[in-house]
Design a protein that fits this description.
The chain is mostly beta strands. It is built from no helices and 16 strands. The strands form four sheets. Strands 3-9-8-5-6 form a five-stranded mixed beta sheet, with no helix packed on it. It has a four-stranded mixed beta sheet with strand order 2-1-4-7, with no helix packed on it. Strand 13 and strand 14 form a beta hairpin. The radius of gyration is 24 Å and the shape is rod-shaped. About 25% of the residues are buried.
């Protein structure tokens, strides 16, 4: 993962971003990509995890390897740079969310014989595509509509017989904002047209 930071040497502005503005990562190691638009100055830079305790000053470089803690959660990277006169810039921050957990298919039920409503553990993409689901015994899915950020309705091509138990499986084409995919081997939910 690459994080871009830039500062001009009078420190009127600065920015630190990740991968074009993305705020989620799936690995603890990130690469800070640092740009000083004016060359020829003996700058130094520092980093911090809390904005209080700083790393030792080091020569300004084009990249900096940075490690997040080995636990899913939200982290802030603090960055500042120094000019040749010893003047430190203001502090720039980047907040990243480390998310290595795959979304889960939590629930499925059939409110009537023509549709199945499903619920995911978190907002996902790809869940509005019929090809990303399989229902057994075989039931064709005519279409999918999004109900909320985490719930969808599968519209069935044929009416379910009442009290018939079925299983819906979500495929790996469904993923969360960090890019973690559904595990289709384990993400199933059983339902019947009398559940709820």
């Amino acid at each position: 993962y690459y994080v871009r930071a830039a500062t001009d040497l009078d420190f009127d502005w600065g920015v630190i971003t990740h991968n074009g503005g993305a705020t989620t990562v799936t690995q603890t190691n990130v690469t800070l990509d640092l740009i000083a638009p004016e060359a020829g100055f003996d700058q130094t830079m520092q980093f911090s995890t809390d904005g209080i305790t700083w790393s030792e000053p080091e020569p300004f470089a084009a990249t900096k390897e940075w490690s997040l803690a080995d636990a899913d959660g939200t982290y802030t990277v603090y960055f500042r740079a120094c000019d040749t006169d010893g003047n430190w810039s203001r502090v720039y921050t980047l907040t990243l969310t480390l998310d290595r957990s795959a979304p889960r298919l939590q629930d499925a039920y059939a409110p009537d014989g023509s549709q199945v409503r499903i619920e995911f553990s978190e907002p996902v993409t790809g869940a509005d595509t019929a090809a990303n689901y399989q229902i057994t015994p075989a039931v064709s899915i005519a279409g999918v509509t999004k109900d909320t950020d985490t719930s969808y309705s599968l519209h069935l091509a044929q009416t379910l017989p009442k009290n018939t138990s079925c299983t819906v499986t979500a495929s790996s084409g469904i993923m969360d904002a960090a890019g973690n995919s559904i595990d289709e081997l384990f993400d199933t939910a059983t339902f019947s047209y009398a559940d709820k």
